[in-house]
Amino acid sequence: MNAPIIILAGAESDIQRIYNRLTDYRDGAGDEFMDRLGGVVHQLEAFPESSPLRMLGFRRALVPGHVYGVFYQIESRGVVVHAVADLRQDPSWLERTLKERLE
User: If 0-12 CB within 10 Å is exposed, 13-18 middle and 19+ buried, where does residue 44 land?
Assistant: First the structure.
């Protein structure tokens, strides 16, 4: 059984920002990221518990070939994506961002 994927507004904003940055960097890079992100989403639909628990009770799935991680929680309504972030960020920044997204 597939779990519904719910992408919250903050994560949608993250995805758009990453897409724009990659597209500005190289033609097609944003589309490649979106394709790989789509693969991650399909994986989470089928196997929501496949990614390890990380900070603040979030699970983190890696986007293959990129430095980005998808931070999500499994809730009764489905797999809720709170953030998509560059994993090279300062861990304290990432923790603050995730805490804000929970509010």
Answer: buried
Starting at the earlier edge strand, list the strands of the sheet with 78-86.
5-7, 78-86, 68-75, 59-62
Instruction: Report d(CA 61, CA 85) in Å as an integer.
Output: 11
Is this structure's pTM higher than 0.90? yes
CA–CA separation, 12 vs 25, rounded Å?
A: 20
Mean pLDDT for the stretch of residues 92-103? 92
Q: Which helix or strand (DSSP H or E) is residue 80 part of?
A: strand 78-86
Q: Which domains does the chain have, with CATH numbers?
A: 5-102 (3.30.2310.20)
Q: Reply yes or no on whether the pLDDT at 1 is more than 70.
A: no
